[in-house]
Amino acid sequence: MQRKFKDFDITVAMKRDDFLRSKGTGQRNLLLSRAVWEFASDLEHLDSIQQEFVDGSVRPLIRQEWEASGADYSDNRQLLIQGQQVMQDWEHPLMRKLADNATAGGGDLLEVGFGMGISATYVQEAGVASHTIIEINHEVAKRFATWRGKWPDRDIRLELGGWQDVIGRLGKFDAILYDTYPTNEREFVETLGPKSPFLAANFVEPAAAHLRPGGIFSYYTNEIDSLSRSHQRILLRHFSSFKVELVTGLQPPADCNYWWASTMAAVTAYK
């Protein structure tokens, strides 16, 4: 199958005679045509917005000792761990959206990743019955202790460790807000590399398992304007429905090396 477009051509060469060989040739052609045209649409859209991207910079490799690595808060403008830009203050609109979505029903909320405490602050401003935060880095946990003092009478607690190690003992929640950064190079490649359908892909199933019926899973993706089909398939295996909102007007600085566009898709999935 060949399709010609203004700026490129797409060729699909089947290696198996029975690849997508349904009961009718028309069915096969329809499925292939839809997939090709969707891919072409993605390429054309990315080309139309790529001039707005920031340049980014070279990212250092992540060593294994993430838990004990120092946390540099760099004048409260950004969080650096092992030279990695983990969070920057331009994320406020995005963190507010995630927090608003996660706190819509009140109840018991689990947040994965504390970072600079941006989303955690918005959670407390909205109000929840309880607020549990998982954080792996010891220096960031010290920052949490200071932040925690703003609300001495509220049910806020920290679980120190990787989410894979601690979530099994935490029970179930009414909402989960996921905002974390890879803690080693392998995880970075698996969650942010070209083969990863979206940032939180490895957490979708655990999130569903630790939500009560009707619970909310709030997270952002590494997608710019929509959700891919593979992303939607993963969600619908574990959640009954979801909504997608585009957070616009983001302003990552030119030296930001973990994000490059002025938009990001925020997802709310419902169990």
TrEMBL record:
Transmembrane segments: none annotated. One of its GO terms (cellular component) is cytoplasm. It comes from the Bacteria. One of its GO terms (molecular function) is guanidinoacetate N-methyltransferase activity. One of its GO terms (biological process) is creatine biosynthetic process. This is Methyltransferase. It comes from Phytohabitans houttuyneae.
